[in-house]
Amino acid sequence: xxxxxxxxxxxxxxxxxxxxxxxxxxxxxxxxxxxxxxxxxxxxxxxxxxxxxxxxxxxxxxxxxxxxxxxxxxxxxxxxxxxxxxxxxxxxxxxxxxxxxxxxxxxxxxxxxxxxxxxxxxxxxxxxxxxxxxxxxxxxxxxxxxxxxxxxxxxxxxxxxxxxxxxxxxxxxxxxxxxxxxxxxxxxxxxxxxx
Length: 195
What we know:
The protein has helices at 14-31, 36-52, 68-74, 81-93, 111-123, 152-155, 190-194; strands at 5-6, 9-10, 99-100, 128-136, 145-148, 159-162, 179-182, 185-188. By secondary structure, the protein is α/β, with parallel strands linked by helices. Strands 3, 4, 5 and 6 form a 4-stranded mixed beta sheet that branches. A two-stranded antiparallel ribbon has the order 1-2. Strands 7-8 form a two-stranded antiparallel ribbon. Helix 4 packs parallel to helix 5. The longest helix is centred in the first third of the chain and has 18 residues, at 14-31.
């Protein structure tokens, strides 16, 4: 179909109109990613893609959670370090290759308890991963983050991995940083270490 002139204006044919609309949509997506409608659409597409690529569990991972029942059974928090040491020993005995403990071991406990955990980490032969995360130094701080790391005697016999996540505006976590500089040292995310 040819374009026609009507009263001094050129009429656009249907193919040209579709091309213009496509360019406008692409420009909107490129130039305005912060628009909530575009971000929402992108999130919906990502969610649909994740559902379409669902896979069955491999059976190669065991997830041990600290839940309300386990907290009630032990009766105290934080748990004694000997309990974590015993868990590491049992998992190693059962043949676990890698163990990730998402527990903050940045402060001291009793000398006996710390020594027991250190012994279990050493016996595990480097198969335990401990968390590193960043947090505000105090409730009033808004800009500065400080790194929280496992005590040196624990870290010397374990891997450390970043457990920071960032929430999207809707409160969901859709990505994690792969690596971050922590006190001048590149630190890989726990998800990447486990992968």
